[in-house]
Structure formats: C-alpha cells, structure tokens
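Lab notebook, design round three. We kept the backbone fixed and only want residue identities now. Task for the bench partner: fill in a sequence for the structure below.
Input structure tokens:
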C-alpha cells in the first residue's frame, strides 16, 4: 500500500487524541486502530503500525508516572507476568470459542460498567487500602483476568484493568494508572517485536504517528495530574460508549 499525505492527515490527529485518552483512562486503541483502518491498509499492518505508535506514547506516559512515584514496582512486575500468562491463555481460547458470543456478553457488561463508573465512589479515595500483600494478590488476579480478555478479544483492556485495580485491589487511582501503564507498555513491546519480525509495520508512518501519540500522552498525563477523578470519569465513559458502538457494529457486520 502507498502511504500518502492523506494517510498522515487521517492518522496523526487521531493518534494524538488516542494518546491523550490512553494516558488518562486507557482505551486509546479504540480510537487509533480505526484511524489506521480508515486508510485502507491491510489489517496486520494496521495492528503492527498501531503498536509502534502507541508503544512510543505509552513509554512517555509510563516514564512520567514513574517519576511521579505512581508505580508500585513489586505489584507492576508481578502483574506483568500474570498479564502475559493470561494473554497466552486467552489467545488460545480465541481459537476454540466463537467471538460473536463474547461480543453479546460484552454488550451486557458495558452498561453495568458505565453504571459503576457513574457511582459517586467509583474512583474516590474513600476505600480503605488493603495490606500490601493482599493488594498485590488481587492485582495479580486482575491482571491475569484482563490478560485473558486481552488475548481473546482486546478492546478497552487498559480501561478495564484500571477499574479492577481501583475497585477490587483498592489501589489509589494514581497508583492503579501507573501499574496499568507499565503492564500495557510491556505487552505492547512484546507484540511490537513480533510484528517487526514479521515485517508488518509501516515504520515511517508509525514513527510519525508515534510523535503525535507522545504529544497526546504528554498532555493526557498533565490533565490526569491536575484533574484526577474529575478527568478520568468522563474519559472512561467516553471510551465505554465508543466500545459499545464498536461492539454493536462488529455484531451487525
């Protein structure tokens, strides 16, 4: 496929927006992947090139959250291992089960998730923190579960992980975001290595789009630091709405 100026005009603004959204609440792929698809490039190149651009942006977001002390490194490392194991399991399940059935289940889960986010205490600091060992165990279980989902289906992985880390593991919003970014970074790099090896990445386009994604992530992390819960809630609700529409479209097509 020939990469033209129009390709860049379509992809770059949307990858900037995807980076902004992803830095705050995850789910940037729900914006960036359709952006690459709009250009008409083959699907394997869509995923591979998106991995390159999103990995660059997530690297910046992870670095900034690490500098702020938002990443619990013990939890992040253990969770990353669980996420890899879950993704491996999920990818094998995807070969055995019909994804159309799973999409119907997602249509039920998404409104429930949106209701949870709308509740006043969904991201508040009112929850009593668990002892560190209990927090890590629940976070590892959450990462394993989301890893299975990511390997099986994938969209909105970062958003769902953030919700589980705050809701189930009782992590502070800042720490949950830091841990989820680190996990996302590691899984992105792993996938990117596979796509680069297979030669299914438009490297120049990915790097340019990555620069826009970095800019979006930079602004997103600043917005998160200043706005906290007030910023996260509307962004997550927006991600869930986009995901809901995409799932209905996938079922109908």
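Proposed sequence:
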């Amino acid at each position: 496929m020939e990469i033209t100026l129009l390709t860049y005009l379509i992809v770059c603004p949307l990858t900037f927006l995807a980076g902004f959204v992803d830095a705050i609440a995850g789910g940037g792929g729900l914006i960036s992947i359709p952006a690459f698809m709009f250009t008409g490039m083959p699907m394997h190149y869509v995923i591979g090139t998106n991995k390159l651009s999103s990995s660059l942006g997530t690297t910046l977001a992870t670095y900034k959250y690490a500098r702020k002390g938002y990443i619990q490194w013990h939890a992040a490392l253990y969770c990353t291992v669980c996420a890899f194991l879950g993704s491996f399991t999920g990818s094998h399940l995807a070969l055995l089960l019909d994804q159309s059935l799973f999409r119907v289940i997602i249509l039920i889960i998404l409104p429930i998730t949106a209701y949870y986010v709308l509740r006043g205490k969904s991201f508040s600091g009112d929850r009593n923190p668990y002892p560190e060992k209990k927090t890590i165990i629940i976070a590892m279980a959450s990462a394993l579960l989301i890893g299975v989902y990511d390997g099986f289906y994938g969209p909105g992985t970062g958003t769902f992980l953030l919700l589980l880390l705050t809701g189930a593991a009782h992590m502070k919003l800042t720490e949950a975001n830091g841990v989820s970014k680190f996990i996302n970074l590691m899984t992105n790099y792993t996938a990117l290595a596979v796509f680069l090896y297979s030669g299914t990445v438009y490297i120049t386009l990915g790097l340019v789009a990555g620069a826009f994604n970095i800019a979006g992530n930079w602004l997103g992390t600043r917005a998160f630091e200043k706005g906290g819960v007030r910023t996260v809630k509307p962004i997550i609700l927006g991600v869930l709405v986009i995901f809901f529409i995409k799932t209905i479209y996938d079922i109908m097509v």
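Keep this in mind before ordering anything: DSSP finds ten helices and no strands in the chain.
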